[in-house]
Amino acid sequence: xIRRWITLIVLFGCACLYAQNINLYLTLLExxxxxxxxxxxxxxxxxxxxxxxxYFLQAMVxxxxxxxxxxxQSLAQKFPNSEFASKSDMKVGEYLFARGLYSQASxxxxxxxxxxxxxxxxxxxMDLMVNSYFATGQEDSAKVALKIIKQLYPSLNYDQxxxxxxxxxxxxxxxxxxxxxxxTSKIKSRKARRxxxxxxxxxxxxxxxxxxxxxxxxxxRLKKQLQGHGxxxxxxxxxxxxxxxxxxxxxxxxxxxxxxKIGKRLKKKFGLDFRVLNNPE
Length: 281
Description:
This protein is of the alpha+beta class. The protein has helices at residues 2-30, 34-47, 52-61, 65-78, 83-98, 102-115, 122-135, 139-152, 180-196, 216-228, 256-270; strands at 206-213, 233-240, 243-253, 275-278.
């Protein structure tokens, strides 16, 4: 028992030391003392070979922009649950923006906002996303993206862009006068056909997952936004690596190809990453 407590104390101490080291070196980078960080990197990589923060420092001090880009992308894929994953994806977007690759940058920033519910990157990512859209003359795309983002993060500053109608729904509700006699006749006709024909059950085992959130509220906002665009969307609770997540899924499709077709349409229109899953009813 005593040995176990000693082990826990040592591990806790190492974790605290690691966090202090990372904060120290990030502060040095902010002050422009890049060489000092570079000099200490070999020792840090040797002591903390499985820590995302060390690889973030490595990418930050690399003078080769293309190599840094690959390092940031690799970090985000290898350590998706680390706080440095969102920072790395932001750096990728900033690199694309600085190179004038605005179409790619807008998609990258939008993906980063959707992907990481936690963190302090949302306002800056949104600002750069909107600027990227404006640079390519895609004001309508910016408006569509902002409508979804406002559902997810209503406390951000949206007024600065000068885009109106972010709170308005896309559909107008209209009342239609019905002919009661014609309606009654149609209902009777359909009931008669229904009593004669037994429909064949066709399974639809495929769904499109467009996001998984720690907070139900965020998942529900995205669900409502997609429903507003006519997609049959549901929120499913699942466990992943001990974490409770709320997955947003568009249902249901007879084939994987049909799901992929809709998924590609969603990615093109909203910038949503997607996975087509086999999830039988």
